[in-house]
What does this fold into?
Amino acid sequence: MKKSVVSKVFISTVFILIITLFIQLFVQMNFIPDLYFNMRLKETNIGFNDFINDYIESDKSYNEIHYLTKEYKESILAPIIILDKNYTISNSSFFDEMNYIEVQSEDKKSIILLGNRVDETGNLSGEYLNLSLNRNVDLIGGKLNGLNVIILDYNQKNTLIEDIVRIKGKIIRTNFVKRKQGVYSYQSEKLLREIGLFFSDKPEKIGNFEFIENETGLNMAMKVYKLKDGGWIFSIFTIENLSEIFGVFNKYYIYFFVFQFFLFSILAFLYSKWITKPLKILSKDASRIAIMDFSKESKIKTGDELEILSNDLNLISKNMKNNIALLKQEALIKEENEKRMRELLANLSHEFKTPLGIMSGFLEMLEVSEDDESREYCIQIIFKEIEKLNNLTKETLLLCESQELKIVSEKILSSDLIKIDKFKNKINEKKINVKIEIEYLYVLCDKQKIKLVIDNLISNAINYTDILETIEIKVIRENDNAKFMFKNTGITLSDKEIKNVFNRYYRGDNAKRMCYDGTGLGLSIVKNILEGHKSKYGVFNENESVVFFFTLPIELIDIKED
It folds into this structure.
């Protein structure tokens, strides 16, 4: 049983999803923690080294140091302390992000660092609620080297502590900081503490020091650099313990995996239906075209290759429809040609049969006749019938040639096409009045074939014109065409004759009345030649007269008669 394209896309999508989920689980269990740790360490190394270079090249002014430390804090998310050779903190703006109160004593102002006595929301906690503005205080703490900054949580072994002092006075300013929750809280306080421990545990050592903080269990890293003037630069940052986080997460990942699987399975099914919908429509459209049903167009509007394919299918359908119609038309034409050929052969047989029968009878009379006058009469009749057969054969050949025309157009002056000298004997014999009015125009046509048309029409006019009647030949301009007209008076055609006059072997009542022995092929030849020129042609009655006409395209410049 064949699978549908929807099921194939669905199975493929779900399979890719499962592989992706397993890869995701494997990577996050084995690589993400180490990858993050190394990335964070590399990031801080680059930032710390850039800061050192910028500091060495700076003018060491307060504003310059403030700008450099602030930029470092924002980009690396870690505090930094600069010590001079006397262990005095040079970047005093370091304390701006710490919790402190400023106390006015009798002779000076002192900043007292409160540490965790202020919670992460910036409020005093527990027993320290009295450390508010305008309150009097009496506190003991460690004074930092060279600064009026007091640490309440002091350690006498801390190298940064100059002395243990007592501060009595009034709180004139508070700086309580709202801190972000998480691993970045209180890093400045931790850095102060770790610097003191550094000088007691690792004197004169520089580089990276990683450790786990006892209180929080967080992974910490401290970076140390000694300046050439004897000063120091310290920075500390926290690295989240992702191994433990992912360890907890992985216990529940199987449930999350199942949830993801069902969720994405549903989404994959809907996606499969959506993505394959135009394909199914295209398949139906192609099947419809395959059974020659061109009644509908494929209507896919996706703006991509599927829409291009839909348009191509419509083009194929249109071309097939047109080609089939053309083949049917050609088949009809072929059938019509075969019918005409059969009619031609039947008519030829009939036309040949009558002269041959006459010739046979007169040959028999000639064989038994002893009278010279009778013999002469028989011979004349036989020659006349032979001439008829000869003319019939010539016009039949012309008709065949006219049906397979190759038109070679050239520019010809209209007056050069109309010559009546060859017809003068017949014209004089019937005392026909001939009027010729020609507007001199250059026309585009096959000269020899159009002269054959004109000769046929003039000959036809003479044959069907009574004695003392008139023939008018005109050439006039009609828009961008030259119109040739041949009019003979004294005769009209019936509607039936007008409809059939250009058909082969057709001979109307006038031909029978006037005993004209034509072949009935002349006007059929005229028709084929004029259609080969894409000419407008026809015949109509006008005031007891018959007018044949046709048109030919002209050049834009007329030739006027001198």
